[in-house]
């Protein structure tokens, strides 16, 4: 069995399709199919089961998977040992919720690319949990700590969220001095059945039962607030990007959440991935602190 065969096996396992694996590897899907058939013949085992959704791992494929991942990690470690501790190079794909991806990661990744010109960073902003076993991302940032899986989990930093509105909206309505005076105001928040993590259920903190204007994207919610469409819970670190948006009732409605960095357990032995994780963690902590220090004054009540 050759490493190139295992590389193609891993790509199909992670993509669950021949075409997806082909895109990952920059080869034709039919070639991927032939290589998988050749590997199955050589091993005398069926590695995948064709389903309407794509290619699922057969029991034999499930047993092969951890060994293929170990070989991948060992090869990466060998490359690092030969290249030494110089600049970080290669591709890094980071999965993150869209608030972090929009307001924090661009600045952090810009500095990383400046410090390490050979580094290629991909930011995947999706409102869901990433599957690191399928290598949808090399590392992921989450808003809650996972409770299962072969993972390295590191708490990065706490961040704050508050109720906020735009000056245009606030100027058009009477002053809001208490939670009770929020009744009758248009609230902006998540679509209830698309909240993928309980830590994102912000609206209950305001006492509101539902959002009249809702999105599965926190960035869309912020832009709606910026447009004067209503009030909503927002990340403090996002407010400096939106002139005219101010916190209100910050002494009565205040939320604290955490960012967690999640990596595949096999990456623990990778000096490169450890260095990237350290750099990303330091960057997020520094950027959250910097942006929260730039908050404008709260809205007058």
From TrEMBL:
<dbReference type="Pfam" id="PF03466">
    <property type="entry name" value="LysR_substrate"/>
</dbReference>
<dbReference type="InterPro" id="IPR050176">
    <property type="entry name" value="LTTR"/>
</dbReference>
<dbReference type="Pfam" id="PF00126">
    <property type="entry name" value="HTH_1"/>
</dbReference>
<keyword id="KW-0804">Transcription</keyword>
<feature type="domain" description="HTH lysR-type">
    <location>
        <begin position="1"/>
        <end position="58"/>
    </location>
</feature>
<dbReference type="InterPro" id="IPR036388">
    <property type="entry name" value="WH-like_DNA-bd_sf"/>
</dbReference>
<keyword id="KW-0805">Transcription regulation</keyword>
<protein>
    <submittedName>
        <fullName>LysR family transcriptional regulator</fullName>
    </submittedName>
</protein>
<dbReference type="InterPro" id="IPR000847">
    <property type="entry name" value="LysR_HTH_N"/>
</dbReference>
<keyword id="KW-0238">DNA-binding</keyword>
<dbReference type="InterPro" id="IPR005119">
    <property type="entry name" value="LysR_subst-bd"/>
</dbReference>
<comment type="similarity">
    <text>Belongs to the LysR transcriptional regulatory family.</text>
</comment>
<dbReference type="InterPro" id="IPR036390">
    <property type="entry name" value="WH_DNA-bd_sf"/>
</dbReference>
């Amino acid at each position: 069995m050759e490493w190139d065969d295992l590389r193609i096996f891993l790509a199909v396992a992670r993509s669950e399709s021949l075409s997806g694996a082909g895109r990952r590897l920059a080869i034709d899907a039919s070639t991927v199919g032939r290589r998988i058939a050749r590997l199955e013949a050589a091993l005398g085992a069926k590695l995948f089961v064709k389903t309407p959704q794509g290619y699922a791992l057969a029991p034999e494929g499930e047993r092969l998977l951890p060994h293929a991942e170990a070989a991948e990690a060992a090869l990466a470690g060998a490359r690092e040992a030969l290249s030494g501790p110089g600049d970080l190079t290669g591709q890094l794909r980071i999965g993150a919720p869209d608030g972090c991806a929009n307001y924090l990661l661009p600045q952090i990744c810009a500095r990383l690319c400046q410090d390490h010109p050979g580094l290629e960073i991909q930011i995947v902003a999706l409102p869901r949990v990433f599957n690191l076993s399928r290598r949808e991302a090399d590392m992921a940032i989450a808003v809650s700590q996972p409770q299962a899986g072969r993972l390295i989990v590191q708490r990065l930093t706490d961040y704050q969220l508050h109720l906020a509105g735009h000056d245009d909206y606030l100027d058009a309505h009477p002053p809001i001095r208490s939670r009770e005076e929020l009744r009758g105001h248009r609230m902006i928040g998540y679509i209830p059945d698309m909240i993928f993590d309980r830590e994102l259920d912000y609206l209950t903190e305001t006492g509101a039962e539902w959002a009249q204007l809702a999105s599965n994207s926190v960035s869309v919610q912020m832009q709606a607030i910026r447009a004067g469409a209503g009030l909503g819970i927002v990340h403090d670190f996002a407010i400096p990007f939106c002139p005219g948006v101010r916190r209100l009732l910050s002494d009565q409605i205040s939320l604290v959440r955490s960012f967690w960095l999640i990596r595949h357990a096999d990456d623990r032995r990778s000096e490169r991935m450890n260095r990237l994780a350290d750099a990303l963690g330091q960057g997020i902590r520094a950027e959250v602190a910097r942006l929260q220090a730039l908050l404008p004054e709260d809205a007058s009540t």
